Amino acid sequence: MLNVRKPLARRVSIRHDHGGLLVHIARRNDGSYSLWFLVASTVIAVQFCSMAIKVFRALHMGIPYLLLLIMLVAVAWLAVLLSVLWGAFGEEEILVANGVMRWTHKALSWKHDSEIPAHEISEIEAITPWHARNNHVEFTAGRRRYKIGRRLLRDEANEITDELRRAVGLHLRAGNSGND
User: I need a labelling partner for 55 at 20 to 30 A (CA). Which of 40, 88, 121, 130 fits?
Assistant: First the structure.
């Protein structure tokens, strides 16, 4: 159910079970905003395509160019659709146990799992810009950089960062670096 009355409600739950860490990030609470954004972007895309058709007809330009333009608009609209669906219905779950971090993100019937050995994680940090519009957690594993929990509250991002650092052992690695 979409919750429109509590836009700043806490979305993160953290549990320690059997020597492991379980972090669950619930869907965002601004579902009605996301759906209105989808409707507005659809109206804009349709208006743009109808204007483009009129211009292409008036200038007697070729159909291939028109089709290319409409395909580009459709791809951009699809990116907006996926972003809005993820914002309204996306959930994440992070489980750190037995030296492996399992990260699952799902929205509606789509689900993606990632397994990353804890020893490969070299950095975990909370990204909290001054505008607080896109607080999230980033971590580096190998040469890739991953983002967890888009649009979190500032304290949630900091809490997840601290717990993940402890769970993967980064606090111990940083303490024994010899740079004192």
Answer: 40
Element (H or E) spanning 23, and its range? strand 20-25
Neighbouring C-beta atoms of residue 34, cutoff 10 Å = 19
Q: If you write DSSP's letter for every residue of 102-155 in order, what string do you get?
A: EEEEEETTEEEEEEEEGGGEEEEEEE--TT-SSEEEEEEETTEEEEEEEEE-HH
- List, in sequence order, the alpha helices (H) in 2-62: 31-58
The pTM is what? 0.70
Distances (CA, A) of 108 to 80, 87, 90, 118: 16, 11, 7, 28
Q: Which DSSP string corresponds to 59-89?
A: TT--HHHHHHHHHHHHHHHHHHHHHHHHHHH
Contact 12, 24 (CB under 8 A): yes
Whole-number Å distance between alpha carbons of 129 and 90? 22
Helix 31-58 to helix 63-89 angle (10° resolution) is: 180
